Structures are given as structure tokens and as C-alpha cells.
Amino acid sequence: MNDIKKLADILNATVILLNITTKEVSYLKKNTTNANEPITKFLLANINLLSNHRYQSLNYHLGHILTCQVTNELIICFSFDYSSLTSNSNELMMLHSLTNLRSISQIIYTLYHVSQAPDEDVIITQFSDQQIIKTETTQPFDATTFFNTETDIIKAIIYSHNDQLISALERLSCLKIIGERFASNNLIRGEKDTLISYIAVLNRAIIQWGYPTESAFQLHNELVQEIELTPRFLDFFQIIREMTWYYFKVVQNYRISNFLPLHQRIVKYVKEHITENMTLDDIAKDLNASKKTLNPAFKKEYNVTITQFIRQTKIDTAKELLIASDLTLLEISTLLSFSTTTYFVKTFKEITGLTPNYFRNHFFDHHLHL
Fold first, then answer.
1. Domain named HTH araC/xylS-type: which ranges (predicted)?
2. ∠ CA 80-84-90, rounded to 5°
């Protein structure tokens, strides 16, 4: 179970263990808060349905739960709560937990049994806040309804109105956004065009609200690149939901960032700009701080230089991408702004003692047991 906990930490998920026979729920982390109580009630209320399929993704207004039945008695659940995303999370991992549902489910099974996982499909299921699974129904696309709902989403994001965002996303989920209107001969192209258009609208909205233009476009470009690199979307609307909550947290975190101590603002900046080739001059300029004060304030708190922290954070992000995505080494090194793939491999080996390919290929039998 320790291996499964490590995988959950990488994916920013909470692990819930569900005993089918005794109907008991437990967590791998002892300090898990009561915030997960509605989730556990839902799982218990639908325990018979959950045991009908090996792998399932259960969608709700704040996130999704990936379930893997590993034995006749035990279901392992990975709970992803979009509203709890913090500045320590970066948008690179946003799409991967949803575009790789099947592989993640198989990894969970393999880690539990130390054997090859069954090659089965992931069943996508919608459930409501009334704790019951419901059949997903969609209405024909209506431009006025879509525009009004999108406007409500923007207002909820820029004013940090949690309940309003939940309500607007629920209304949006009932609209048939993808269909005859978009690339009828190429569904995946239609989905990508819709996502890119959607984040462009959100990006313009947060810039008009006051979010830094350069940072907003950096966020936009990274998301577009991730969308284009994704071969297919198993659960399209959950991608929209997760991206929307990410923008919500970006604005919310920006509101409070100026009140943080300098060393915490540096950490936040590095994590939010991890795909860039950062310099101390860039950090000092964007944080409105003296370059001379950066390293002393940072090293006093963390005992490492900012440059060392940037290198370590880039490699930590690379680990996540190696495990949770199918991106090539070239794509990862480019995404993280390494000058060459060779330099990326060299840096990865200096920090971890392993090459990226070895790390990816021996994740089960080596890294998780270190």
C-alpha cells in the first residue's frame, strides 16, 4: 500500500479504501480531513454498483474518483478534488489524470498485486450531490444558453464565488457542446478546438480582471500545448471542469500572493513558471523585489539556492510527466525549457541517479521501493 500512496502523492489524489463485504471506509493518510465525508457516503451508497466493473471514473461537481477493484472485497479509490488545488500544483498535471484513466487504473492494480493488470475499459459514470449515480443527459446545443452559462462561469472565477461556479458548471454539463457543430468527421479535432476556444475566453477574462498578461498567456500556451499533445479525451467534460477550477484557483491564489513572505512567493512563482527558463532577474522583476534579497531570504528558509530549487522542481515535474503521461523525452525537455534533451537527461541523472527512460521503465520495481 505504500507504493500506492506514493503514486497518489504524485497525482495529487486522496486514496480511499472501500471494503465491499464490511462496507467500511478507510484512508491511507491518517490525517485526512472530514472534507471527504460526502465522498465516502456516496461510495457506500453505491457500493453494489461500484463492484460491477473493474475500473470506473465517477464524475461530480468538484472533481472525479477513479476506482479500481483489486479483489472481491477491496476497491481502491483515487479521489481528485479540483477545488482543493493549491499553488503547489501546476497545470502540467491537470490533463493527465483524465487522459490516462486506463493506464492509471492498471498501475494501481499492478502495484497491489505485483502482476499484470487486466486489460479492461474504464467505465465513465456521472453522480449527483444527492449521493446517487445518475444517467448523464444532454440538451441540444443552444447558443444563448451556452453564452449565458459561460458568462456566469467567468463571473464566478473573477469574483471567487465557489457555489456559483458549481451551479454554472452543472448547467454547462447538460449542454451537448460537442456534436454536429464541430468537425463531424473528426471528433477529437472538434474537442480540441472547443477546449482551446474555451480557455482563450477564460484567459481574456482574467487579464481584463487584472491578472498579469504575460503569466496569463504563459498559462494559455502551456494548456494549448497539452491539449494538442493529447491523443484523445476519454472524458471530455471533466477536462473542461478541471481547467475551469484551475483558473478559479489561479485567480484566488493571485489575490493573496502579495501577502505571502518573500520565500513563499518565490516558491509559488517557481512552481507556476516551471516550464520557463527562469532567471533571478525575472523573479525579482515579477515579484517587485530586489535581486540581492532573493537568495538570502530563500536559503535562510530552505537551505538551498533558488537555482538548485528550480532544477529540483523541474526534475520533480519531469518525474510526474514520465509516470502519468506518454510524452517523449524530447517533449518533456521542451515543455520544461531544457536547452536540449541531452542536457535534460544529464540533469535528471545528476539529481536522481537514474536516466529518465530507466525511471519510467522501472518505476514499479525500483523507484517506488526506494
1. 264-362
2. 80
Beta pairing partners, 25? 18
Separation in Å, CA 109 to CA 71, 75, 103, 127, 167: 9, 10, 10, 24, 35
Backbone angle region of 176, left / alpha / beta, with phi > 0 → left and psi within -120 to 50 → alpha: beta
Q: Match 536516466 to its residue by C-alpha cell.
A: 355
Give the span between the Cα atoms of 240 and 235, in whole angstroms.
9
pLDDT at 116: 85
- Residues across the chain: 370
Give me the sheet containing 25-27, strands edge to edge: 25-27, 14-19, 74-81, 63-69, 55-60, 122-127, 133-134
Chain segment 28-61, per-residue pLDDT in tens: 776 565 556 777 887 888 888 888 889 998 877 7
At 370 the pLDDT is 42
- Is residue 134 predicted with pLDDT exceeding 50? no
User: What values do phi and psi take at 249, rounded to 5?
Assistant: -75, -35
pLDDT in tens, 52-107: 889 998 877 777 889 999 999 999 999 888 766 554 445 556 566 666 788 889 88
Residue 67 near residue 55 (C-beta atoms within 8 A): yes
Instruction: Fill in the amino acid letter for 29.
Output: K
Burial of 77 (0-12, 13-18, 19+ CB in 10 A): buried
b or e along 252-271 (b: 16 or more beta carbons within 10 Å of the residue's beta carbon)? bebeeeeeeebbebbbbbbb
**pTM (two decimals):** 0.63
Query: Which residues are CB-contacts of 319 (< 8 A; sequence separation ≥ 6)?
Result: 10, 352, 359
